[in-house]
Design a protein that fits this description.
This protein is mainly alpha-helical. It has a domain of 83 residues. The mean pLDDT is 83.
């Protein structure tokens, strides 16, 4: 069976077209029918544990003053800030009602889930080859669970984006041997923990990677880099 090729296109352009097609496919599956249910809520994590808490936020924006809160506060601040900006820009105060905030949360979930497609490709390319990157990107693009959660205004898609992005930064730190990537990994991991505390589980993996990097390099220099990455992580949290 002959392999389909386009000799008049450069390899870089061919790979870009393939990746673009995968991203467009994934985006279409995630952004289509974001307004499903039209005001009815069948996902308790979306309504009761996220949007309802946001609507009851006090002026201090502390969700724990409302009651026990399951997730991190970063998504609440993100949704609230976006709703307020859209209300000012459009002059439409209905952006602050429950349904519009739900649509904002779902849009963020779909966007984060779509961006993971690109990061998966980059991870596959760094750890294997372009073909491995395409397989990883296509697998996530067509993953039923990721598509499902992209249609909910819950924090899981945001958490996945931050965790995968921090993993990519850690891989770059190892391969490029540059401390700046550890700083970025720490910042993004802090955002992951601020999104949902289960991000701490992956933070331990990041700490193990940092420990291996410390053993790989001069102990003093490696210790300082891991120390500052941890400090930045705590700052992001």
């Amino acid at each position: 069976m002959k392999r389909l090729t386009f000799p008049h296109l450069s390899p870089q352009l061919q790979r870009g077209l393939v990746l673009g097609a995968i991203v467009l496919l994934g985006a279409a599956l995630r952004f289509r029918y974001l307004d499903w249910a039209h005001g009815y809520y069948f996902q308790p994590d979306e309504s009761v544990h996220t949007i309802d808490y946001l609507l009851r936020l006090p002026p201090s924006l502390n969700p724990y003053e409302v009651g026990p809160y399951t997730y991190g506060s970063l998504p609440l601040y993100l949704y609230c800030f976006t709703a307020r900006v859209l209300s000012v820009v459009t002059g439409n105060p209905t952006w602050a009602d429950k349904w519009h905030i739900t649509m904002i949360a779902r849009a963020y979930a779909a966007t984060a889930s779509t961006m993971v497609i690109l990061i998966n490709y980059a991870l596959g390319r760094c750890l294997g080859s372009h073909r491995a990157g395409f397989v990883a990107a296509l697998g996530w693009s067509l993953s039923p669970l990721s598509i499902q959660y992209a249609h909910y205004g819950v924090v899981d898609s945001l958490l996945t984006f931050f965790v995968v992005a921090s993993s990519f930064m850690a891989v770059q730190a190892w391969s490029r041997d540059q401390s700046g990537w550890w700083m970025l990994a720490g910042i993004i991991m802090g955002l992951a923990i601020a999104t949902k505390t289960t991000g701490l589980i992956w933070a331990f993996s990041l700490a193990i990677a940092g420990g291996g990097y410390w053993l790989k390099r001069n102990w003093r220099k490696g210790f300082m880099q891991c120390h500052w990455a941890l400090q930045v992580c705590l700052l992001g949290f």
